[in-house]
Amino acid sequence: MAEYTSFQSDRAFFAREQFPYGLDRSGEFTRDQVQLIKAHGYAYRALDRGERQPENKEEREFVAFCHGQKTAESKHERVWNRFRAATSKPIINVSMDGARNKPQVDMAGETVDSDF
């Protein structure tokens, strides 16, 4: 993978809360996308949340994308857009045990209303 001056991070990003079996096993991302997310995910998230100030033009454009001021154009913007879309999907639990009164719990530990 090429060296980047933008989106520097000192550790790998795994997102175990959303992808307990790993990003590469989720089926949501290509290998190249997984490499970008692992290498730069903490920087992406910090810039998205406003926890980190952009250091150059590429990061400023990324922040503008995160705030909805522009569409995803760079590979960093496209991969983070894909990550946000994959992590914002509703969790659907299917049970075959027939216990209708038993509360269902999703991966985040929150109770899910199972009455459709």
What this model shows, in words?
It is a single chain. The protein is mostly helical and 116 residues long. The protein has one domain. It contains three helices and two strands. It has helices at residues 31-49, 57-66, 75-87, and strands spanning 104-105, 111-112. It has a two-stranded antiparallel sheet with strand order 1-2. Strand 1 (104-105) and strand 2 form a beta hairpin. Helix 1 (31-49) crosses helix 3 (75-87). The longest helix is centred in the middle third of the chain and has 19 residues, at 31-49. The N and C termini lie far apart (46 Å).
The residue-averaged pLDDT reads 84
User: Strand fraction band?
Assistant: under 5%
Oligomer: single chain
Number of helices: 3
Strand order of the largest sheet: 1-2
Our measurement of the CA-to-CA distance between the termini, rounded to an integer number of angstroms, reads: 46 Å
User: What is the makeup of the main sheet?
Assistant: 2 strands, antiparallel
Categorize the overall geometry: elongated
Radius of gyration over alpha carbons? 17 Å
Structural class: mainly alpha
Tally of discrete structural domains: 1
Spans of at least 5 consecutive residues with low confidence: none
Q: Which H/E pattern describes the elements?
A: HHHEE
Kindly state the percentage of residues in helix: 25-40%
* Record field, number of beta strands: 2
